[in-house]
Amino acid sequence: MTANRTNTMTARTRIAITQVSLLVGATAANADFLGLEVESTPVDQSSWNESDHRDLYTVSIYARFDADDDELKAIWGNSDDTLVIRTSDPDGFYQEHASGAHRNTSLDIPVNAPSEVAADSFITIGARNQQDNVLQTMAMDYASFNEEGELFCGGASGVWFTGPSAEQGIAGNNPDNRVLIGQFTMARFATLDGQMNLAWFSGGQYEQQSSVALFARAGTCIEDVSGADGQVDSADLLHLLAAYGQWGSDVDVNGDEVVDAEDVRALLGAWGQCD
Ligand SMILES: [Ca+2]
Ligand SMILES: [Ca+2]
Ligand SMILES: [Ca+2]
To answer: Which of the four pLDDT bands, split at 50, 70 and 90, describes residue 3?
Structure first.
């Protein structure tokens, strides 16, 4: 089992397929934001104070930039451009309830804290804990998210952001110019999907992109639709074909909601070990 995996191509493929016009329009002007990336990591539950029956994985979502001085400033949603992040896990996102929605609490991750804290689901810009975290948030409703449900903003505008003097969203202050925008913990093989709007500065210019799509599968590749073994083979193909034509199935590979020939093509293209 791989300790760490990156689904860069998956995330980009989905954007390419579902947001073609947007991406084409945005690429010329906004080449500085390269897209969302997803990384999933197994959670070590051996020293937890409280048990969770699931085989948990933490899915981290990053915004990747191409220049050190690009700076992610805000993630938002409103009635025109919905923000949603949700999971197919029937038990929802894992929440360590003392940690809150966005680490902007008095709780840091001390060295000897129970490891539940590190697995908490939260949103952020850059910061993984409360140390020097100056994240701000306005009009976001975290009630559902804090109770393991989806993160949603589709009515009044809600936003999380950093102020003018903040530095945690500057790409060069983060490894590989990737700025963390949230981590979400769920059962292995559960899917995470959603969309969001991002704003950033590049060369002093304000830029933004709306309805950036996101799709990932915890602990394995998105094409491992039979969800058991970390490889893409005939079992996955048969499983996908059995769901052919269905809408809203979690067998969907490219995240456009319907299971069709595009998904068969994507699955065949990923044939073999997910690793
Ligand atoms: Ca939380
Ligand atoms: Ca499989
Ligand atoms: Ca599809």
So the answer is: very low
Ligand minimally distant from the alpha carbon of residue 238: 2
Sort 206 into a burial class: Cβ within 10 Å, 0-12 / 13-18 / 19+.
exposed
Domains identified in the chain, total number: 2
- Ligand with minimal distance to 251 CA: 3
**Single-letter amino acid, residue 207:** E
pLDDT of residue 177: 96
CATH of the domain at 261: 1.10.1330.10
Domain shared by 34 and 156, yes or no: yes
**Which pLDDT score is estimated for 16?**
31
Q: Are residues 184 and 50 in the same domain?
A: yes
Condensed to tens digits (0 to 9), the pLDDT of residues 183-199 reads 999 999 899 999 999 99
Average pLDDT over residues 209-227: 90
Q: Number of helices (H) and strands (E) in the chain: give both, helices first.
A: 6, 14
pTM: 0.81
- Residues of the domain holding 113: 5-219
Are residues 174 and 133 part of one domain?
A: yes
CA of 33 to the centre of ligand 1 (A): 27
Q: Which of 219, 242, 260 is the last residue in one of the domains?
A: 219
End-to-end C-alpha distance for the chain, whole angstroms? 8
DSSP string, 170-181: BGGGSGGGEEEE
> How far does residue 223's CA lie from ligand 2's centre (Å)?
8
Q: Which distant-in-sequence residues (6+ apart) come within 8 Å of 219 by Cβ? A: 1, 40, 42, 55, 57, 188, 189, 230
226 in the same domain as 197: no
Q: Are residues 190 and 236 in the same domain?
A: no
Q: What is the mean pLDDT of residues 239-265?
A: 91
Tokens 């840091």 belong to: 108
Region 140-167: mean pLDDT is: 93
- Name the closest ligand to CA 234: 2
